Amino acid sequence: MTVVGGQPLYGTVRIPAAKNSVLPLLAASLLCEGTVRLCGVPRLLDVEASLALLRGVGCEARRKGSDLVVEGPPQRCRLPEQEAGQMRASILFAAPLLARLGRVETVFPGGCCIGARPIDLHIDGLRQMGAQMQPGGAGRLVLTAPGGLHGVEYTLRLPSVGATETLLLAAATARGRTTLRGAACEPEIVDLADFLNLCGARIEGAGSPVIRVEGRRCLMGTVFAPLPDRIFASTIACAVAAAGGRVKMEGCRPVTFRPVLGLLSQMGCTVERAGSRAEVTVARLGRLHGVGQVSTGVYPGLATDAAPLLAAALLRADSPSSIRDQIFERRFGCAEGFARMGARVRDEGRILHIEPTRTLCGARVEAPDLRGGAALVVAALGARGTSRIEGMEYIQRGYADLGDTLSALGARIA
Fold first, then answer.
1. Of 119, 141, 145, which is closest to residue 131 (Cα–Cα)?
2. Any idea where the Enolpyruvate transferase domain is (predicted)?
3. Are 242 and 269 spatial neighbours (Cβ–Cβ below 8 Å)?
4. Which residues 6+ apart lie within 8 Å of 164 measured at CB?
5. Domain spanning 2-16+228-413: which superfamily?
6. Which of 38, 185, 223, 346 counts the most CB atoms within 10 A of its CB?
7. Is the dihedral of CA 93, 99, 105, 107 positive or negative?
8. pLDDT, average across residues 335-362
9. Taking 90 as the threshold, does the pLDDT of residue 139 lie above it?
10. Residue 315 confidence (pLDDT)
11. Where are the alpha helices (DSSP H) in 42-140?
12. Buried b / exposed e across 1-26, counting CB within 10 Å, b at 16+?
């Protein structure tokens, strides 16, 4: 992607369905008898990989216009290695296959290189529910549940989104009752629970630290619209802060990315909320200010995925800032690209220090990961001259036509 910076952004953006909701919903479709239809899903590389996982275990999974249609049941317990190995979310398919077939074989999940992303909480919780780990060879994961999965009282030692999703998927059709304590509270957890309940599950408390599930023998298909992508909305908001201008974002409730909006307001942007409507307008006309020290955290704190995006917007602020990521130890791989553009940054792994920089200059940079790549695009919008961002395959994992979206707002992108 080639970006010519210095062009303010103006217009309106409709926020698409959230990748971080669509992927667990596709995994959940394995639990359903009948057809599942997910409405308005963007064409993302991670979505296509998830469809390949479903087809690999014998389901019919296809696009129909902007919707996804999945029909089961699964016939095979072995997930395709290539797709399973390339994305973190492939672990979410393990619990539904255990529930339906009593066995799952896969490789350990991959994804962006942003730090350790262990799956021990997933495995420990599944073991408590009756799963057994079998020898599988180097890099392989084999789980069986010869007696089926059963309900359990389980306390997560940390509020992992992925582990909460795995155990929610396992509990939906397990025998008996499950109580999850210390659960993640993210909106994507609520979306997954809403979907499962529409399919016939009985889940209470999603969005709180305690979730209770009454297992059901069978779930049915349904039609469902995944929630809008709060990280996509954060990306557009930070792009406006970096480039200047005024953009209205429709469809995404401001409360879901309130920490980003609050920090942008602190930086000198204007943030206008439209009452109870899922709409917010972000504008930046003057100078940007630093925000001092901020940290990411579990929801409703600042999302780890938003940290590099916010950092990109802060590069030209008139006072220092530092962002600490509490989740991943290598979140700021984009710092090297920032430095190539002339930014004064210091990457200490979990902490990125940002000093005032009067001018950023276009440069050739490489996306280190999904959100780091998007952050480089945001930084390029605020730079003088032309930037070339390599590694677009990372960005395309979570953004469909990001260049077209920004071009429609006035950015010069090729």
1. 145
2. 5-406
3. no
4. 156, 180, 183, 184, 189, 211
5. Enolpyruvate transferase domain (3.65.10.10)
6. 38
7. positive
8. 96
9. no
10. 98
11. 45-56, 81-86, 94-101, 120-128
12. bebbbbbbbeeebebbbbbbbbbbbb
* Dihedral sign from CA coordinates of 307, 310, 316, 318: negative
pLDDT tens by residue, 70-96: 998 999 999 999 999 989 899 999 999
Q: Which CATH architecture has domain 19-224?
A: Alpha-beta prism (3.65)
Domains 2-16+228-413 and 19-224 share a fold: yes
The pLDDT, as a whole number, for residue 113 is 62
Check residue 194 and give its pLDDT.
Answer: 98
Mean pLDDT of the chain: 96
Counting beta carbons within 10 angstroms of the beta carbon of residue 332, is it exposed (0 to 12), middle (13 to 18) or buried (19 or more)? buried
Cis peptide before 300 (omega within 30 of 0): yes
**CB contact set of 284 (below 8 Å; sequence gap of 6+):** 240, 241, 243, 244, 245, 246, 264, 268, 269, 270
Q: Give the pLDDT of residue 276.
A: 81
Q: Tell me, what DSSP letter sits at residue 305?
A: G
Q: Between 19-28 and 161-172, two packed helices, what is the crossing angle to 10 degrees?
A: 30
The pairing of strands 2-4 and 202-204 is: unpaired
Would the pTM count as exceeding 0.85? yes
Domain ranges of the chain: 2-16+228-413, 19-224
Q: Give the catalytic positions in this structure.
A: 112
pLDDT digit string, tens, across residues 216-261: 999 999 999 999 999 999 999 999 999 999 999 999 999 999 999 9
CB 12 within 8 A of CB 250: yes
What does the H/E/C string look like for 320-370?
Answer: CEEEECCCCCCCCCCHHHHHHCCCEEEECCCEEEEECCCCCECCEEECCCH
- 271 CB-near residues (< 8 Å, 6+ apart): 261, 262, 264, 265, 280, 281, 282
Phi, psi of 75 (to 5 degrees): -110, -25
